[in-house]
Amino acid sequence: MATAKAYAATSPTAALAPFQIERREVGPHDVQIEIAYCGICHSDLHQVRDEWGGSKYPMVPGHEIVGRVTAVGAHVDGFKVGDLAGVGCMVDSCRTCPSCQRKLEQFCEKGAAFTYNSTEMDRKTLTYGGYSSSVVVDEAFTLKVSPKLDLAAVAPLLCAGITTYSPLRHWKTKKGDKVGVVGLGGLGHMAVKIAAAMGAEVTMLSTSKSKEADARKLGAQHFGLTADDATFKRLAGQFDLIIDTISAPHDYNKYLGLLRVEGAMVLLGVPPEPTPVAAHALIGGRKTLSGSLIGGIQETQEMLDFCAEHGIVSEIELIPVQQVNEAYERMLKNDVRYRFVLDMKTL
Ligand code: NAP
Ligand code: ZN
Ligand code: ZN
């Protein structure tokens, strides 16, 4: 075991504070990474504050991890010391169930080992995330990161990037498709960039008039203010696909009215409270209401390669780890443009 510095929450109401953790010895298939940067996802906040229930403490959040390889096990052949590497939301899965065989490890039927607030596949050892100085991860769950991109701005791709890329691919987004992105935060801004790079005609649907200019810079061609009911009349029946990234409860029915016949809306945001959906919001146009959870490891690598090819990174505000609690408060006030990233040198 090796000790690592970290920031942890010890209860749903405690502020994150310095904490020491143990990382396992580097096994034959393991990669040890010195963490350079870790993004702050709204899911970190939901889980630290136990908004989804069942949170495990002490919790070291963080699943948007990038850094450099400092050691590799004897059987690792994809990474060597000094390489850039990334870790996203999962660190292991059973690898044999039908979902794992389909490379959808996020839906592992035995339950994947998530990067934090979870356990290793032994179901005993708590996993600790990227608000820490180092991590040891099986090579099969370690991603390759291009040296062409700004490393700090790559970190959010490991969750916000794959979470938006995966449904855009699944629903076969192509040139000319009309895609609506709901909520311009960490996920939303990546959805705009990636959908635009796929050739879609993107409309940003936001509660914040002040974000319109940014939305256009990120690649949206149109903007709809969702605080204004006229927007829902003006854009009714338009979209092939709607990507909903809102983190708080809101009325899905209104947004379903913006889909064309046989269009689909994909929920990515995970508000703590359920929201009713009316059957008539779906049956009239044979519409689909779907959801999507991150993406498999192979698809995450595909997304990273796509972003490197298209020069896509996140828009970030780089902060020292000591500001993490303040960053959470600012995220709740919708005061982030568009992803906080922790500089782990400051730990
Ligand atoms: P974020 O940066 O805080 O962005 C959320 C955005 O939602 C805000 O920027 C805001 O956009 C909008 N919003 C916030 N409160 C709202 C309200 N009360 N009513 C309407 N709109 C509101 O969060 P994020 O990191 O992108 O995460 C978004 C959600 O996705 C979270 O629930 C997170 O847990 C979830 N998530 C899911 C997955 C998955 O695999 N499905 C992966 C990662 C995260 P505007 O100002 O433009 O309105
Ligand atoms: Zn996340
Ligand atoms: Zn499995």
Q: Explain this structure to me?
A:
The protein has 347 residues and is of the alpha/beta class. The model has no long low-confidence stretch (mean pLDDT 98). The protein folds into two domains: 210 residues, Medium-chain alcohol dehydrogenases, catalytic domain (Quinone Oxidoreductase, Chain A, domain 1); 131 residues, NAD(P)-binding Rossmann-like Domain (Rossmann fold, 3-Layer(aba) Sandwich). 24% of the residues lie in helices and 27% in strands. One zinc ion binds next to loops.
Calculate Rg over CA atoms: 20 Å
Mean pLDDT, to the nearest integer, reads: 98
Count of structural domains? 2
CATH topology of the largest domain: Quinone Oxidoreductase, Chain A, domain 1
Stretches where pLDDT is under 50 for at least 5 consecutive residues are: none
- The rough form would be described as globular
Query: In this structure, how is the largest beta sheet organized?
Result: 7 strands, mixed
**Class by alpha and beta content:** alpha/beta
Bound molecules: NADP nicotinamide-adenine-dinucleotide phosphate, zinc ion
